[in-house]
Design goal:
By secondary structure, the chain is mostly helical. Helices cover 41% and strands 10% of the residues. It has a two-stranded antiparallel ribbon with strand order 1-2. The chain is globular. It starts with 7 loop residues before the first strand and ends with a strand.
């Protein structure tokens, strides 16, 4: 099994979001779009979509 380390920020850590100079509105828009796509188009989604179970990936390719 391969293990991969991905730098990320927990959804509830707004201090880290601000320190990384991320756009909160853009994150909210993209998160909303992703959840709605999963629910309405794909029919498959996380059963507990709260901030503690969401992360912002800081990888750049």
């Amino acid at each position: 099994m391969a293990r991969l380390y991905v730098r990320d920020i927990p959804g509830h850590d707004l201090t880290a979001v601000d320190a990384a100079r991320l756009d909160r509105r853009l994150l909210a828009r993209r998160g909303t779009d992703a959840v709605l796509k999963m629910m309405l188009e794909d029919g498959f989604f996380h059963a507990d979509p709260i901030q503690a179970t969401s992360f912002t990936c800081l990888a750049t390719a």
